[in-house]
Each structure stands twice: as C-alpha cells, then as structure tokens.
Amino acid sequence: MEVIIRPDVDRAVDLVVKLIVALIKEKPNATLGLATGRTMERVYARLVASGISFADCRTFNLDEYIGLPPDDPNSYRTYMNRHLFDHVDIDRANTHVLDGSALDLKKAAQDYEAKIDDAGGIDLQLLGIGVAGHIGFNEPLSSFMSRTRDKSLTPTTRAQNAEMFGGVSDKVPKRALTMGVGTILDARELVLLATGCAKSSIVAKAVEGPITSMVSASAIQMHPNCKVVLDEGSAKELQGRDYYDFVFANEPKWESFRRVDN
Ligand code: GLP
Known about the structure:
Helix 7 links the parallel strand 9 (190-194) and strand 10 (226-230). This protein is of the alpha/beta class. It starts with a strand and ends with a helix. The chain has helices spanning 9-26, 38-50, 76-83, 105-118, 155-160, 181-185, 200-208, 232-235, 241-250, 255-261; strands spanning 2-5, 31-34, 58-61, 63-65, 95-96, 124-127, 149-152, 175-178, 190-194, 226-230. The chain has a seven-stranded parallel beta sheet. The chain has ten helices and ten strands.
C-alpha cells in the first residue's frame, strides 16, 4: 500500500483524477470500478473537465440501495448519471450499477459478478470510506471473502448518508446491494480517496490498524497494488506520516505527479 498525502482536498482529488486519466490513456478500454458519496463528486467533476474519452471504457459501481428503482433521485444510478455519465461519451450500455429494485436480489448479485468476470475483471477500483469503516457497503463483520450480496446498513452509515434523504436517517434505506470485500480485492488496482477531519480516525484504523472485519476497509492492506490518497485533515491521525511523505517525494514513478501538482 502507498499513502499519498496532499496539502488540501483539491490536490488530493487532482491526483486521483490523474491516476484514472493515466490509466485510460494507457488502456482506452479500461474497466473502472466506481464509487459514490460526496467525496467522489469532485472526482467526477474533474474527470468531466479533463475531456478524457470514456468511449471504450466499461464501469461497475460498488453498490446500490435496496428498494430504490434506478430512476429514484437518491439511487446511485441517478448519482452516476448526474455526476459522470450524462457528461461524458461513455456508452450507457457499458455502465453497470446494481439494481436495488430487482425482485431476485441474489440473482442480481450473481449476475453482477458474472458481468465483471465477462469484462475481464476490474482494472482500477475507486473507493471511498464510510465512517463505519466500510468500503462499498461492506459493513463491520463483512467476510473478506464476500462476493456481491445484500447487506443491512449500520445506524452510523444511515446517519452519515441522511443528508441525501432530507437529513432524516430513517428515510435512508435499511439495506443495500454491494460488491463483496473479495470482489473489491480482485480488482487489479485499488485507489481509496478520503478527505476531511471526520475521516481521520477511520482512515488510521483502515491503513495502520489491525486487519479486521470490524473495519472492512482494513482489507485493502492485503492488496498488492493499493493507493490511499488523503488530504491533511483525513491524514492527521496516521503514525507513519514521515515515511509516506518520503516515499511520495522520492519514488521515481511519482515524479510527474509531484511536478504537475506543486
Ligand atoms: C457511501 C458509499 C460508500 C462511500 C461512502 C463515503 O456509504 N456506499 O461507497 O465510500 O458513502 O461517503 P462520503 O464520500 O459521502 O463520505
């Protein structure tokens, strides 16, 4: 794992966007794993502004609320359309978001796994982190071998996402379909972005704490190609900060990122 700490949210977002753009330039038909949440809104805005072509890309989103049809204003399908798909040249048929209104959720989950396999797997999986320590909607005790399935959301997660539901936690769906931790770990590269002081404690647990299913994001420590991109606020509880900064300042592969960024 590599931890890259940028001075502010803008520069953290900028670095993530550059990683995605670099991948698409190298592999125009890349398969991207996408995430939702407020943190990612800036990433998508910047990706749209970059003008990069998604014409040959395929995408798979991490998760979706159960009970919300795709055209619900709060569904993650609507979120993706609004923030990315409506503004880029991607073929809508190549965008995949789980259907939370499916009658047979088990089948929807299995079909999703099959589609990811058919696409040859995910090249780069973008991740946020919830204050409950989840990646996707893998709430505490999610098996690290889990595949796409339905999960009950924690009260913490429902409270965190209440803002999108008029500030009322009770209006947040109680369950979601989510890629499993195992599904996420199968991606060839993981890029986790977290920003803001409210995430500093859970980021420290995920990055430096014990690997435990109580913090499903800690599973990323087992991934051989994982980058965690942070701003100062979300990084403030990390113990190994000096070393992470040293690596970013010295590793040749980060040179162009440092140069453009500073
Ligand atoms: C939701 C998503 C997660 C995401 C999290 C972070 O819970 N299911 O995949 O990581 O939001 O949200 P935010 O960026 O709004 O803090």
